[in-house]
């Protein structure tokens, strides 16, 4: 069975790096756990780091977190669906919101559950995903203030999640100005100004974020150490918290060109020959025990640079090991670097074993 391994030491190193970064700048933060897909083994590792706040976009994952550690503050990081209101109030201490009718339902349900439900009002700032339009914010905020059993924990925004709009100092200054306008209008204090996700870390490292922006939600940087501005690894962090291992189940020298009438394969692709193909060429192919049901080949990369990915079917991945210096045998493991979306596929698969080492 193929498996994904979480490196405990690298995870701890990255958490300590981020904790020191945020503490030194008086910033609150929470771990975004949605990539873990509710896996209890890995969620336990996150809780054992010492985190007091975990964000997720799946209610079932928040339920799992509460079952493991009821004292962890859980944050639901997308606007709630009407049919999920009772579960949101039960398992999420805080939720992101953009619709007044939804917040009214949360207010009513919180009353029934004898709770105060906290919310973050999300503001649209150019990425065109969720968010209240800026010109409607003051009226929206005033309506929410009158609702019982609702505490406005703060305001926030999401960038680089849909349209690829990057956060910059101007965007965060604009978010800070919304805080000032609301506080002046309603004579209140807003605890959180949540400035975004891992994509904002380069601005924090450069001390380019406005002081009013005092909260962030971090997932990708914790697990992958990615600087999303440069595409490089954040200096001082570890990049390979996750590693994929797949076992070789066949090794055979085979022709490079299939024989017979060609149609679409299971993925809807058709093999195409071109003038560069040598009709008599062959390669040493290895078949691995992982397929499209578990991963997408474009999101994983063999650690052995001399291995070439050929193609995958639902349950098997074919690679060319002809040029490798390793003398691979049946039963050997091939390791892979994983991109964010690759890990998301793998962790969502029930057929991939999860290991901590």
From TrEMBL:
Residues 7-226 form the Alanine racemase N-terminal domain. The keyword Isomerase applies. Pfam families: Ala_racemase_N. Its EC number is 5.1.1.1. Keywords: Isomerase, Pyridoxal phosphate. It comes from the Bacteria. This is Alanine racemase. It comes from Flavobacterium qiangtangense. The lineage of its organism: Bacteria, Pseudomonadati, Bacteroidota, Flavobacteriia, Flavobacteriales.
């Amino acid at each position: 069975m193929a498996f994904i391994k979480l490196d405990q030491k690298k995870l701890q190193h990255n958490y300590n790096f981020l904790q020191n970064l945020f503490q030194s700048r008086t910033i609150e933060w929470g771990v975004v756990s949605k990539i873990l897909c509710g896996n209890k083994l890995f969620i336990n590792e996150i809780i054992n780091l010492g985190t007091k706040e975990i964000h997720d976009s799946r209610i079932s994952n928040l339920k799992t977190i509460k079952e493991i550690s009821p004292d962890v503050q859980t944050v639901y990081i997308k606007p709630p669906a009407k049919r999920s209101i009772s579960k949101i109030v039960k398992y999420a201490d805080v939720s992101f919101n953009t619709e007044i009718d939804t917040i009214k339902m949360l207010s009513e349900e919180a009353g029934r559950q004898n709770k105060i439900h906290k919310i973050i009002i999300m503001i649209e700032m150019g990425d065109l995903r969720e968010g209240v339009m800026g010109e409607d914010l003051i009226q929206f905020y005033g309506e929410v203030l009158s609702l019982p059993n609702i505490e406005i924990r703060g305001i926030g925004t999401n960038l680089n999640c849909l349209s690829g709009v990057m956060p910059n100092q101007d965007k965060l200054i604009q978010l800070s100005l919304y805080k000032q306008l609301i506080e002046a209008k309603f004579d209140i204090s807003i605890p959180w100004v949540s400035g975004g996700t891992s994509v904002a870390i380069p601005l924090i490292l450069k001390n380019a974020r406005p002081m009013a922006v005092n909260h962030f939600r971090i997932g990708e940087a914790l697990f992958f150490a990615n600087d999303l501005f440069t595409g490089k690894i954040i200096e001082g962090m570890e990049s390979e918290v996750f590693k994929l291992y797949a076992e070789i189940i066949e090794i055979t020298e085979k022709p490079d060109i299939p024989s017979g009438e060609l149609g679409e394969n299971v993925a809807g692709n058709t093999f195409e020959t071109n003038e560069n193909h040598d009709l008599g060429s062959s390669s040493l192919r290895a078949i691995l025990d992982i397929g499209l049901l578990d991963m997408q080949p474009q999101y994983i990369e063999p650690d052995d640079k001399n291995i070439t990915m050929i193609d995958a079917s639902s349950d098997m991945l074919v690679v060319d090991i002809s040029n490798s210096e390793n003398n691979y045998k049946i039963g050997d493991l091939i390791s892979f670097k994983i991109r964010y979306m690759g890990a998301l596929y793998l962790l969502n698969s029930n057929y991939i074993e999860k290991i901590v080492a």
